């Protein structure tokens, strides 16, 4: 494999991956629609990731995965496709349902339809899945062993009881790492679309005898993440708020946690999946092997930026959000030899140093919150 197509190739993960592949001697084509939400209205000036791939040898195609002709143009003479292009906001997906289905599911169906019914050279497919497909993930109950809590109840949340309960006895449960064999039960439209994408790619990969691999990325962060997108990327959203001297509103009690994985580690894992035959037809978690609560994230950002903004733990919550989740990495360690290199403290320092070098973006976060309020999805 020499010619690699990356959809979403001007995005956060795609641009970093493309540059790494170019460095290794591959020919890279990036297909991207330069969404205003991510790249701004003038990408050549506003989008750090788009600017990073210009004049690097990466062939850029301005197009959409919802267009058959754009797919056909991009797939010509390619040996592998890394399908990263997607709508990615968990909260936004709960009211922009048609858009998320059109881009994530229908866009993937076009790829597979072309590969099924047309001549091509594709020898490998990689799909970006998500930790969102697990919903609340895996927990341990004293009475019922490993369990998978259902969506938390509104009344519990209103009463300030945010923790997950055993779905059988209702008792408190302890968080454990979620492995790839865990129950799949997404709590958001975004999570559902990623589950469908993953299943489609793996099912048709086997049918077409095209090796395929799915990566269930945890919360990816690092230099280059869009600072203008108010719908996804908690470190970027908080950073933009801090740089605008706006207070941070922390949902629930601030103890909700995520598995924050640094961009360089994500690129390394994805490269292993592309190149190693041991990855064929497998799914892998990609994370940092440790959960970090949101309040801790906010405090570290405030400290790194030497800011005195107010951090308000409000008790607000959003429909579709999960309480905790972090990935069990034993499978990817044992099969692909992947181990994350960056600790959270190292990664957040690198990220904050990069943010300090960027122009301050307009804080649009309240717009996204107002949209959810109007739909009854924000309490």
UniProtKB/TrEMBL annotation:
Q: Organism's domain of life?
A: Bacteria
Which Gene3D superfamilies does this chain map to? NAD(P)-binding Rossmann-like Domain (3.40.50.720)
Residues in NAD-dependent epimerase/dehydratase domain copies:
4-139, 176-287
Q: What EC number(s) does the entry state?
A: 5.1.3.25
Query: Which EC main class describes this enzyme?
Result: isomerase
Keyword Transmembrane on entry: no
Keyword list (alphabetical) reads: Isomerase
User: Which PANTHER family does the record match to this protein?
Assistant: DTDP-D-GLUCOSE 4,6-DEHYDRATASE-RELATED (PTHR43000)
What protein family is recorded?
Belongs to the NAD(P)-dependent epimerase/dehydratase family.
Name of the protein in its database record: dTDP-L-rhamnose 4-epimerase
Q: Which organism is it from?
A: Algoriphagus iocasae
């Amino acid at each position: 494999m020499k010619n690699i197509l990356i959809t979403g190739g001007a995005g956060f993960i795609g641009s970093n991956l493309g540059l790494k592949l170019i460095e290794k001697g591959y020919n890279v084509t990036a297909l991207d629609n330069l969404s205003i939400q991510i790249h701004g209205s003038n990408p050549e000036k506003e989008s750090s990731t788009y600017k990073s791939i210009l004049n690097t040898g990466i062939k850029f195609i301005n197009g959409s995965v919802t267009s058959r002709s754009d797919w056909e143009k991009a797939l010509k003479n390619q040996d592998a496709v890394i399908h990263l292009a997607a709508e990615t906001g968990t909260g936004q997906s709960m009211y922009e349902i048609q858009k998320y289905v059109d881009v994530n599911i229908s866009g993937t169906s076009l790829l597979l339809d072309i590969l099924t019914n047309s001549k091509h050279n594709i020898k490998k497919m990689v799909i970006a899945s998500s930790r969102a497909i697990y919903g609340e993930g895996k927990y341990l109950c004293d009475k019922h062993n490993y369990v998978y809590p259902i969506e938390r109840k509104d009344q519990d949340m209103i009463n300030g009881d945010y923790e997950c309960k055993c779905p059988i006895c209702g008792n408190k449960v302890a968080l454990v790492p979620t492995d790839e064999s865990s129950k799949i039960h997404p709590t958001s439209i975004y999570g559902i679309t990623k589950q469908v994408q993953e299943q489609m790619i793996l099912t048709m990969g086997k049918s077409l005898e095209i090796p395929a691999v799915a990566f269930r990325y945890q919360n990816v962060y690092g230099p280059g993440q869009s600072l203008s997108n108010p719908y996804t990327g908690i470190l970027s959203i908080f950073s933009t708020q801090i740089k605008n001297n706006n207070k941070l509103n922390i949902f629930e009690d601030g103890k909700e946690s995520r598995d924050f994985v640094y961009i360089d580690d994500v690129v390394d894992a994805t490269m292993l999946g592309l190149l190693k035959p041991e990855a064929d037809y497998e799914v892998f978690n990609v994370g940092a092997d440790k959960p970090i609560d949101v309040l801790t994230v906010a405090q570290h950002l405030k400290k790194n930026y030497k800011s005195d903004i107010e951090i308000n733990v409000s008790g607000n919550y959003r429909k579709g959000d999960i309480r905790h989740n972090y990935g069990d990495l034993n499978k990817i360690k044992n099969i692909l030899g992947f181990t994350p290199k960056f600790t959270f403290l190292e990664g957040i320092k690198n990220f904050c140093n990069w943010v300090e070098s960027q122009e301050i973006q307009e804080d649009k976060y309240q717009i996204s919150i107002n949209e959810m309020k109007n739909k009854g999805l924000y309490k």
